[in-house]
Amino acid sequence: MINGFKWIGLIIATMVGAGYASGREIWEFFGLGSSLAIVLFTIMFIVSCQVILEVSYLKKSEHYKPVLEQFLGVKSAKVYDYLVMVYLFTTLFVMIAGSGATVTIFEWSNVIGILLMVILLLVIIPRGMDGVLSINRFLLPLLIVGLFLVLMIFVFQERVSFLYGIRDQSNWVQAIPFTSLNVLPLIAVLSAVGKEIKTKKEIYVASIGSGLILGTISMVYNMSLISVAEQLYFYEIPLFAILNGYPFEMFLLMAVLLWFAIYTTALTSLFGIIARLQELFKQLSTGKIGLCVLLIALPFSFFSFSNLVSYLYPLYGVLNLYVLGAILLFPIVKRATTYKI
């Protein structure tokens, strides 16, 4: 039961990456007329987590391949296995671009943020990422709590109405690609803990708890962004529009936490790519592979962070629809097979 809360932390940490925390992901998919969409996302997210965790638990999995094969079959799983690589690579250069966008708020050139990110990634490659991830386990909860507090303060100070535009729910369909966008990372992370899950109660606690928390934060975040919609054109990172007018110390703290979330997201993506490429190029060192990957990613990083998210995130939302459908239908198909319906 207590472990269920640990899995809640893992799920939220997986979801609340730089795209989500910055607000760009929320604004890209939701916006006005999206309250129903967020409710639907919450439901689909809970079901998805429950199904993924249950399959991982039954298979006692340590990595995502057997779980992915369970949902898609061996052949389709191979296709999505390659898609994971592409996803990791695009995430890498989107995060590097995000670093550039973050520093522009201090009126620095985005080139400074991009180069800073690349240099720090190169520095950490030979040392491994255990130390950084240990720090991230401490900083990420701070980011999530800080983000929620900032949003709640903003809601009360600005008297944001949650009933604004409640009759218009035309954007409900966006719940589907938003959920599917996050399906592959969930499978990748949750499949790795299958052996550690002790009881099914943990699964229900983790699924429902994480879904309700993310649904609540998403709703509050979305309504806050709607209230500053006119200012969002001036910000690559929507969170900074909300923070505008806050004390500089809070602004700086959130900017640093956000940048670190971007950095660790880029780092995990880079190490994921390196691990896969080392299977193909065993003669090359980790450092050389990492350098090559970063050199290839660097030109893409000079594109606008907001534009990259605008084009790539919806694309992955569409590409992952098959996986989401397979996950949501899995309990029905399993029951039909069991009872030979």
UniProtKB/TrEMBL annotation:
Transmembrane intervals: 33-58, 79-99, 105-126, 138-156, 176-193, 205-228, 248-274, 286-305, 311-333
This protein's record includes keyword NAD: no
Entry keyword Transcription regulation: no
InterPro entries: YkvI-like
Keywords for this protein: Membrane, Transmembrane, Transmembrane helix
Name the record gives this protein: Uncharacterized protein
Species in which this protein is naturally found: Allobacillus salarius
